[in-house]
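C-alpha cells please, single chain.
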Amino acid sequence: MQRFFLSVLLLTLAGFPACGSTLEGQRFEERASLASHELQLNGLGVRAAYIFKAFVAALYLPQRSADPQDILGQDMPRRLQLRMLMTVDSNEIRKALVRGMRKNVEPQAWAGLQERVNQFAHAIDTIGTAREGDTINLDYLPGRGLLLEVNDLPRGPVIAGADFYRALLEIFVGPNPVDTRLKKGLLGH
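Here you go.
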C-alpha cells in the first residue's frame, strides 16, 4: 500500500513544472549562481521593435527590487541574461549596446569609459552571429567587473568598473531605456 501511495505521489509531482518563469517560450530559473553568489530573478521583458522580437531579457539580483536607482546605485553582483529570439549579427548588437550606453552617460563620464567601451565592443564582435536560442550573459562581480558569456563560454576580457556596468545596465533600466516595456518587465512590474 505504501508503494502505491508513493507511486501516486511521484507521478503527481512529475506533472508539476519546476520553479521558473517563462516568456515568449523561454524558460528562466528563479535563481542563478554567479561565482559564490546566489541571485534571484527580478523580472523578465521582451525587446521588441516594430513587429520584431529580438530577445527576452532577465535581470537577476541578490534581492528583488522595483527601484531602478537602487539597482543601479549598489555595487552588487548582477546578471542580465539575453535569450535571442532571432538571429542577429554581432555588429548590430555592438552598435545597439554602445549607442544605448552613450544615450545614458554624461559626456565627461563617457570620455572616461572609452577604453573599456572599446574592449567591450571587441568582445561583442567575437560573437559573430547570435542565433535564435543563444544565451548572452552580461554578469557583474564587485571588485572584478563585467564578464561576457555566450552559451556559457567566456568572451573577451573582464571589463573593470562598477561605472561601466552601470552604464550598460542603464540601457535597460535607466532613465533613458531602450524600451520602456522591457524596463517595466525587468523591474518586475
